[in-house]
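The following record pairs a protein chain with its ligand, adenosine-5'-diphosphate.
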Amino acid sequence: IRVRPLTCTETRRGDRRVVHSLGDGTVHVSATSPLGSGGLQHPLSRRHPRIQVSAARHDATFGFSAVFDAGASQEAVFEGSGMRQLVELAIDGFSCTVFAFGQTGSGKTYTLMGPLAQSETPPAAPGLLGLMQRSFACLLEQSRSRGSDLALSASYLEIYNEQVRDLLSPGPPCTLPLRWSKTRGFYVENQLSVDFESLEAIADLLLQGSQRRRTSAHALNRHSSRSHALLTIHVRSRAGGQSITLSTRVPQPSACPSKQGTLCFVDLAGSERVKETGSSGELSVEANNINRSLLALGHCISLLAQPRGKRTHIPYRDSKLTRLLARSLGGSGITLMVACISPSSRCLSETLSTLHYASRARRVTTRP
Ligand code: ADP
Ligand code: MG
């Protein structure tokens, strides 16, 4: 769980902090502290001060593997979330996924990428770089220390209005078909994958791709993303790569099995209610598509959270998002979910729903 600080706007209009980290991985949400304008108060408790109806309803404590409060640095999130271990597992050949989810403006993109760098503005200070750039650095460091035994490539997609688009191919974004095969599971046909060897190269791909993402300005966040974005790093490694000499072009599978891991970063579009963001027309079509795929994701997670014996069919086919994430969610992958929340009293109900969603997600087990 990551709680962002109150923004200047929120402080200026007098929003209160209703989310507090208690240490030990617990987070406490309480609307009982003096109520701000956006706080919830039951009419009964206003008339009869001794009846604390709303207090009982909106006082909740949740437990998670890690909680990062407003003061936590980007580095603390990287080190404390298990992200470094995830990078190492990807090198070892596992499919690893990091999700950021939560309401629009809750800090998903910030957590993954740091403050959004536009090409005109100077790049963000190193301390503010997000989980992605820190993982790339870690990956390249490992690659160097292993004597360039790793081959790295990246692909970057967005799902916008239930269409999959390539963010790395030049020109206007083209729609790609999503297919299924027995051997590969769900996959995107003709998706561009770009090799990279340096930190600059991958940072550049990330910047180019994120500038192509569909964003639109609405009330909650000026740079709010209207699409789900998936950046996948493919890590191919050969155990004992040095043993493949030029004369033996064909690697012996038994002597040096090649491993192929992936590290996928998923920046989900914000969950939000149409009314709150002032969406209309085209925007509300977007919002409905976003909410539909998030709902499908939530549904899959709820079913996956059931004990194995009781599990029924998981409806991955309900949305493009769940198809693409099928392997990360239920298969053999290892997944880190970062739930981002705002501390503001005005976001109370969205915050509670994110926390419930995250609690369900926590019960899902995979078999790496
Ligand atoms: P989302 O991607 O969830 O819509 P953003 O990541 O764009 O939200 O964050 C919304 C705003 O809050 C941005 O201006 C961002 O810089 C700021 N912000 C988010 N998280 C933090 C944080 N942990 N520390 C400081 N500012 C943050
Ligand atoms: Mg975002």
